[in-house]
Input
Amino acid sequence: MKIALISGSHRPTGNSPRITRFIANQLEAKGHSTYVLDLSTQELPFWDEGLWGMEGLAAKWQTLWAPIQTELADADAFIIVSPEYHGMMPSKLANFFLLLGNGATVAHKPALAVTVSAGISGAYPVTELRAFTSKNNRMVYLPEHLIIRNAGEVFQPETKPEQAESNTYLTGRLEWLLGMLESYATAFQSIRASGYTTNSKYANGM
Ligand SMILES: Cc1cc2nc3c(=O)[nH]c(=O)nc-3n(C[C@H](O)[C@H](O)[C@H](O)COP(=O)(O)O)c2cc1C
Output
């Protein structure tokens, strides 16, 4: 199974890219293949009408977006890792969802939301991801999610004694969620094959 992970942080040295790589390693140890899109290092312009084919704006997207889109289309499931920035998902991640548009790239495929806070936040981006990032692209979030608080202390090579209990809890919960994502991904293959998931008459979800 191929799982694509998107890290929404703007900071290459942030916790989200590190945690995304940690999760990718866990998946690879289970025999899955992974694709990691780190938005802190993968420069993507803001959405423009080139994605709708406008002359003069379209050509760059063939180089910048088409290879990413191919990787995402090839994936069976997704993990969206969002930091909390002032109670929101970061703008690079919001732009990523604009770039997805309403094509079939991620449609009717399961996604696990993972949110990352250096403090004790992390609930706002869960709400934002669930409410505002899948209407037209039709990605399907699992009913469970993972909020990583005190992120600087989590999934590190060395665990401080006072962080051991929470790290054990989060490691176990992540393990459970990755199993759940895999089982959803298997089941959703038959949902996509049912023929009920596309209807050009209702392309924009309303
Ligand atoms: C612009 C900005 C705003 C932030 N706002 C919040 C916030 O509202 N709540 C919070 O818990 N952490 C906030 N943080 C800290 C992040 O939670 C912290 O950096 C965490 O590690 C996730 O972001 P990262 O992946 O970029 O490191 C903010 C960080 C930045 C850079």
Q: What stands out?
A: The longest strand covers residues 77-83. The radius of gyration is 17 Å.
